[in-house]
Design a protein that fits this description.
7-stranded mixed beta sheet, alpha/beta, cytoplasm, Rossmann fold, two-stranded antiparallel sheet, single chain
Amino acid sequence: FSPSVLGTREHWDAAYERELQTFQDIGDTGEIWFGEESMVRIIRWLQKHKVPLDSSVLDIGTGNGVLLVELAKSGYMNLTGIDYSPSAIQLSEKVRDKEGMSNIKLKVEDFLTPSAELSGFDVCIDKGTFDAISLDPSDAAGKRQLYVASLGRVLKPEGFFLITSCNWTKEELLNEFREGFEILEELPTPKFCFGGRIGNSVTALVFQRK
């Protein structure tokens, strides 16, 4: 991929500072990455596979924390969100508090260098964070390797990893996560038609840690 400001911390700090101000001004929680259907898709999969409501869930790059709020509304109780942008965590805390979901834990953490206490999760979820890392102007390939290594550390053996991406195809993601993970399922995503060819603009996969 071509390097982009979307891969820089400065971009996301500025973006979430704006969203934080907007939330304080008018109560708007800001953008939901990949739309509400992406959250419904994740929650339906967890419910369909009877993932226990007390399972520990980590939202990697939580942003405004809306996914965690929806998980909490669906009955999930052991929820943690991390983001390397302090502004994002400030925003997600305000969204959490407005919704009265005090059991959601939120922390400023860089997933590429996770703290020791960030471990033992049953489920890890990524909506767009791996995409953003892939656009980092400084050593994106190395940072993708760090991401996979971090995932292996924080996710329990046989734990589930649900990733939603608009930059990577199924085959490419299978290659990126070939070390230590196996594919369980590809989730249905919206299709588009262009020039007579049908394709998916978004890829959503479920992996299991070996």
